[in-house]
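Inverse folding, one chain.
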């Protein structure tokens, strides 16, 4: 039977429809799936192209035994250096954990991590399975196709590496370690299993989860990678990133240069972004600008009053600023970008999930970042900094950004400083959440692929290029009124996008 949906593998329907979380008892004694709150007999909330199994895990052939560490003979005639037994009979205590993928053969190990008694990483390697991969098992393993691009180590080589680290008297520690050793096809007897150390109150075969044990015994929340793995299914595809105008690396590999493939919906070169009138974008001659905050909508062929002030269509704008402004640099400046760096796999399998929001001002160059806020999955502020734009400010954009001249008094951090801070915080596998996040990332001149866009999570009923505003989504989904006065608040916007994401998990 399929490991996920429990259907027979000879089922005519090749598509696997399953629930990733088990049934749990909810209010009034009703049983609901923990992943989607679906009923007991509901169709799986997740779909996969193939059914999978793990019958090979119980294959009893091809095992290797950890070897005894013997002292060298008095007269060593072997021509090689042999290690004596360790002092004080310390043969090593190691924690081991594996991640696996589904192949045509079944379930095969694809990554192994070993940590010593001081919690230092001793071994952390990917390996290629022996059969063709049919499912990367990303929801649970966190492994994606790109993780294996440059991997050459085979399963046999990885196992030999482990047998060189361990010996027959080494103590191995793990949670449900029988599974890890079975997929590694290693026989070992000195094992400490936290399943037995912290047993379930009702006894075996019930087992407490490692996350539950860590929370109750260590007051530590682990496996935040659970959120990370759940978020992976919401990440935009490469095609979506291109369609939505996210900066993508130049195919000719020119350093720092990117391509924008979208149609730049609503962008007109040489026009003011506020009033949509043409003006001199060199700012040689500056003239005042009046505009309306909200559009005039057409109903049954009749142009309705402006939503911001109620004035009739074509009337003078209800807002006034000292000069026209533009944002041409957002679409035309494709140089000077940096790609988020690659990072080795963290211990908990989570590369981080952060909500990102920026506020910008208008300069002689166009529109530039002036404030950046980053929140974690608990909506705690991780980063919140103002920075100085690289060009002269012509308008503080206070109506939308909430930034005033006095906010920048005493600020010394430059745009480059802020971007470098973010590149230390983020890595290539970090998941970034935001509303129309292409604006923020393109202004930050950062190329990133693992993006969740709430404009896509909560689409407009009529589809793209139309998008619902964050204010509208927050009101309907969270019953929360945001951006109610004084401009946008980057912390508030980031918090709302994170809560909107968590609502979908």
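Residues assigned per position:
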């Amino acid at each position: 039977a399929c490991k996920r949906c429990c259907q027979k593998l000879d089922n005519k329907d090749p598509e696997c429809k399953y629930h990733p979380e088990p049934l749990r008892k909810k209010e009034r004694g009703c049983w609901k799936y923990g992943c989607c709150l679906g009923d007991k007999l509901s169709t799986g909330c997740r779909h996969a192209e193939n059914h999978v199994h793990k019958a090979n895990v119980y294959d009893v052939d091809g095992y290797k035994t950890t070897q005894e560490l013997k002292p060298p003979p008095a007269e060593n005639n072997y021509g090689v250096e042999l290690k004596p037994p360790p002092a004080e009979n310390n043969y090593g205590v190691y924690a081991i954990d594996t991640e696996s993928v589904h192949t045509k053969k079944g379930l095969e190990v694809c990554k192994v991590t070993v940590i010593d008694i001081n919690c230092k990483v001793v071994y952390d390697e990917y390996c290629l399975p022996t059969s063709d991969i049919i499912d990367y098992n990303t929801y649970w393993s966190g492994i994606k196709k790109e993780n294996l691009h440059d991997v050459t180590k085979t399963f046999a080589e990885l196992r030999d590496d482990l047998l060189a680290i361990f010996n027959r008297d080494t103590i191995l520690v793990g949670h449900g370690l029988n599974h890890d050793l079975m997929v590694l096809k290693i026989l070992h007897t000195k094992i400490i299993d936290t399943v037995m150390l912290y047993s379930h109150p009702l006894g075996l075969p019930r087992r407490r989860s490692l996350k539950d044990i860590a929370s109750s015994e260590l007051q530590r929340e682990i496996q935040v990678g659970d959120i990370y793995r759940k978020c992976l299914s919401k990440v935009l595809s490469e095609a979506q990133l291109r369609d939505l105008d996210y900066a993508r690396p130049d195919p000719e590999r020119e350093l720092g240069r990117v391509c924008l493939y979208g149609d730049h919906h609503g962008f007109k070169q040489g026009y003011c972004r506020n009033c949509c009138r043409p003006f001199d974008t060199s700012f040689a001659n500056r003239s005042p600008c009046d505009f309306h905050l909200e559009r005039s909508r057409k109903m049954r062929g009749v142009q309705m009053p402006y939503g911001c002030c109620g004035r009739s269509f074509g009337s003078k704008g209800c807002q006034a600023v000292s000069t026209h402004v533009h944002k041409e640099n957002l679409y035309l400046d494709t140089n000077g970008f940096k790609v988020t760096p690659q990072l080795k796999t963290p211990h908990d399998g989570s590369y981080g999930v952060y909500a990102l929001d920026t506020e910008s001002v208008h300069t002689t160059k166009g529109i530039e970042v002036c404030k950046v806020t980053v929140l974690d999955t608990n909506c705690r502020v991780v980063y919140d900094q103002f920075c100085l734009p690289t060009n002269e400010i012509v308008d503080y954009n206070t109506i939308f950004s909430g930034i005033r001249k006095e906010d920048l008094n005493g600020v010394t951090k430059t745009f480059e400083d802020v971007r470098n801070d973010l590149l230390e915080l983020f890595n290539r596998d970090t998941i970034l959440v935001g509303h129309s996040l292409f604006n923020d990332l393109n202004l930050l001149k950062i190329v990133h692929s693992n993006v969740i866009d709430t404009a896509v999570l909560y689409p407009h009923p009529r589809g793209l290029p139309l998008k619902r505003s964050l204010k509208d989504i927050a009101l309907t989904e969270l019953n929360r009124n945001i951006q109610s006065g004084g401009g946008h608040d980057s912390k508030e916007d980031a918090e709302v996008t994170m809560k909107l994401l968590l609502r979908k998990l």
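The chain has four domains: 1-51, 56-68+88-222, 238-262+331-504, 289-322. Residues 289-322 form one domain.
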